[in-house]
Amino acid sequence: MKVLANDGISKSGILALEKGGFEVITTKVAQEQVANFVNENNVDVVLVRSATKVRKDIIDACPGLKIIGRGGVGMDNIDVDYAKSKGIHVINTPASSSESVAELVFGHLFSGVRFLHDSNRNMPLEGDSNFDGLKKAYANGTELRGKTLGIVGIGRIGQATAKMALGLGMKVIAADSFIPQVNVKVEFFDGQSITTTIVSQSLESLFKEADFITLHVPAQDGYIIGEKELAIMKDGVGIVNCARGGVIDEVALVKALDSGKVAFAGLDVFESEPKPEMAILMHTKISLTPHIGAATGEAQDRIGTELASQIITLLS
C-alpha cells in the first residue's frame, strides 16, 4: 500500500511505515494535482499538515482513498464529516505537538515582556551608534512570575501551556465551554510532581482578570477577540495566538496596540495566511513566527510515529 505524505513526514515516521509494509511517497504535489496523483499512483493514504487541503472535490475524485491523516491537531483543512460519510478513516495526532506549541507560546511571552523581537531588529542597525538609547528604550521589562495567564481553550495544548506557566510561578485561569475543569499535573526531572485543578470560568471574566492571554482553540466562524473583548481587558495586556488565524480581529488588535491598550502581541498564525497583512508584519509591538508551533524535531518525530501506528493498525 502507498502513503503520500504531501506536506512531509519525519524520518522516524517513514521508517515505521516502511517496516509495516507501506511505500511512502514524499513528493510535494501541487494542490490542484493531488487527486490526479493519488489516482495515477494508486495511493491509499494521504497525509497532510496545514498546507494541503483535502476537500470534497478530492474525496469524490479518489474512490480508492482509505485514510486521510493530519499531522497535528487542527482538522480545518479536511472535510472530515464528508470523508467519514464515504467510508474514509480520518486521523490526526492531537497529543504529539502540545509541548512544542506551549514552548513557542512562552517564546512569544518572553519576547513581548522583554522587547526581544524589537531589540533584535534594532540592535544590528543601531547597537554600535545608539547603545545607550536602545538600553533606555528596552529598560521597562516585566516579569511573568506572579502574573495571571488566561488560557482560552484548556485542551491538550492549553494544559501543556498551563504546566509551563505554573512552573514559572504564574497564576493560571482558563475558559473552555467544553471542559468544565481539569487536573493539571506538573512533573519534575526527579520524578516528583504536583497536581492542581483549574476550573473553567467565563470568557468575559478571563478577559477582565488576565495579565496575559493565550488562545488554544480550533478555527472559528467569528472572532473570539474583537474590539468589544479588547475593551474589557486590562490595560497593558499581552496576547499570544499560536492556534489558528481568524480568531483575533487583526484590525482591532493593531488599533489596541497603537493606543497602548495591548502592550504586545505574539502571533504564529494570521487571518490572511500565508500572506499576512503588512500592518501586522511591520508592527514593532508584535512578535512574529510563520506558523511553526509544531515545527520541532521532537514533535515531528512523535507525529510521524503516531500517524504510522494508526495507519498500520487500521490497514493491517
From TrEMBL:
CDD domains: PGDH_2. InterPro entries: D-2-hydroxyacid_DH, D-isomer_2_OHA_DH_cat_dom, D-isomer_DH_NAD-bd, NAD(P)-bd_dom_sf. GO terms for molecular function: NAD binding; oxidoreductase activity, acting on the CH-OH group of donors, NAD or NADP as acceptor. Residues 8-315 form the D-isomer specific 2-hydroxyacid dehydrogenase catalytic domain. Residues 107-293 form the D-isomer specific 2-hydroxyacid dehydrogenase NAD-binding domain. Keywords: NAD, Oxidoreductase. It holds the Pfam family 2-Hacid_dh_C. Belongs to the D-isomer specific 2-hydroxyacid dehydrogenase family. This is 3-phosphoglycerate dehydrogenase. It comes from Flavobacterium hibernum.
